[in-house]
Amino acid sequence: MLKIPKHSRGMLALLAAALLTVAAQSNAPAANAAGLDHYVDCSAAANGSGTQASPWNSLAPVNSLQFGPGERVLFKAGTTCVGQVTPSGSGAAGSPAVLTSYGTGAKPIIDGAGVVGSVIHLLNVQQWELSGLEVQDAAASPAYRTGVLVENSSGSTLSHISITDMTIRNISGWSGGWYSTNAGVGIQTDHTTPISTWNDILIANNTFDHVDRLAVAVTPDGNGDAVGQSTNVRILNNNIRYSGGDDILVVHGDGALIDGNDAAYGGSKSATGCPPSGDVCNGASASIWMAGSDDTTIQNNTVACTINQQDGMAFDVDWGNHNSTIQYNYSRNNSGGFLMMMPKISG
C-alpha cells in the first residue's frame, strides 16, 4: 500500500478539486453570457428591461443596441412591431449576432407600414443571422423599398450573412427600378475605394410573396464594374410567388449556387413600374439570372408562368458571365421560354 506523506495530502486534495472543476467546465453546454439575449413584445403595455419576463415593447431599444458576438434579439411570436430595424455591431465567427423569434404561434411581424427604404437594414456589419420573422412594407404608391437590405460600403470584405425561414411579403418597390433596393432580400455592394465585397451569403428556406421588384438580389448599388465579386453565395430552397419583376439575381458573383428554388407568376409589373426619369429603369425581367459572374451553378429549380413580355425566360445567362452551369431545372409556361443567353457587352 502506497503511503502519502501528510504534508502532501492537502496539495493533492487541491489538485483533485481543480481537476474536477476543469472537467465540469469542459462538459458544460455552451451558453450566451448573461444579458446577451434581449426580448421584444410590441403588444406589451409598458416598456421593460429587455428580459423575457420584462420585454421591450418597441423597436427603439433594438436600434440603440450595439450588437456583439452571440448577442440576440428575439421577437415574440404572434405580435407586430411597426417601424424599421437598423441595428449596429457585428458578431464573430461561430458566435453571430442574431434577430429571431421566441414563443409559439405565427411569426412575429416587422411592418414598415409604407416607409421608404428598408424595413431591416444592416450596414457595414458581418457575422449576422436572421430567421423566423415576417417582414412587410405595403404602400399605395411604389418607392425604393426593400424588406431586408444588407449593405457593404466598408471598403473591405465582410463575411457571413444568413437569412433563413423568413416570410417577406407585400413590398411596394419600383418593379422596374434598381435591384437590391427593390427586393425582398437585397445584398448590396457599394462602389467604394478600396473595393467592398461579400463572402459567405446564405439565403435559404424563405417565402416571398408579392415583392417588387424581385425576391432576392445580390448586386452592386448600380451599373459599372468597379466592384469586387461576392464569393460563396448560396440561394437555396426559397418559395417565390408574384414578384413584380424578376425572382433571383446575382451580379458580380464568384461561385454562386442557386439551388432548389420554386418561383411562379413573376414579371407582371416591371414593364410599367419604372421610377421617375433619371433613375434606372429596366422593364425587362427573367425569373432566375446572373450577370458579370463566374462559375455560377443554377440547378434543381422550378420556374412557372413568368409573365413579362420583354424577356420572360425562366433562366437568363446575361452579360459578362464565364463558366455558367444550368442543370436539372424545370420550366413551365414561361412567356419567353426556357433560357436566354447574352454575350459580354462590348466597349
Summarize the structure.
The chain has two helices and 30 strands. The protein has helices spanning 6-27, 60-64, and strands spanning 37-40, 66-67, 72-76, 80-82, 88-89, 97-102, 109-111, 117-123, 128-131, 134-137, 145-152, 157-164, 167-172, 183-189, 197-204, 207-212, 214-220, 230-236, 239-241, 248-251, 253-254, 257-259, 262-264, 288-291, 297-299, 302-304, 315-317, 325-327, 330-332, 339-341.
Query: Sheet with the most strands?
Result: 11 strands, parallel
Structural class: mainly beta
Q: What is the general shape?
A: globular
Number of helices, counting only DSSP H or I runs of 4 residues or more: 2
State mean pLDDT (0 to 100 scale): 90
Strands, count: 30
Radius of gyration: 24 Å
The percentage helix is under 10%
- Terminal CA distance: 91 Å
How much of the sequence lies in strands comes to: 35-45%
Query: What ranges have pLDDT less than 50 throughout 5 or more consecutive residues?
Result: 1-34
Please provide a written account of the structure.
Helix content is about 10%, strand content about 40%. It has helices at about 5-25, 60-65; strands at about 35-40, 65, 70-75, 80, 90, 95-100, 110, 115-125, 130, 135, 145-150, 155-165, 165-170, 185-190, 195-205, 205-210, 215-220, 230-235, 240, 250, 255, 255-260, 260-265, 290, 295-300, 300-305, 315, 325, 330, 340. The longest helix has 22 residues, at about 5-25. The strands form 4 sheets. Strands 1, 3, 6, 9, 12, 15, 18, 21, 22, 25 and 28 form an 11-stranded parallel sheet that branches. Strands 4-7-10-13-16-19-23-26-29 form a 9-stranded parallel sheet, with no helix packed on it. Strands 8-11-14-17-20-24-27-30 form an 8-stranded parallel sheet, with no helix packed on it. It is globular and about 60 Å long. It starts with 5 loop residues before the first helix and ends in a 6-residue tail after the last strand. It is built from 2 helices and 30 strands. The relative contact order is 0.08. Mean pLDDT is about 90; it is low at about 1-35. It is mainly beta.
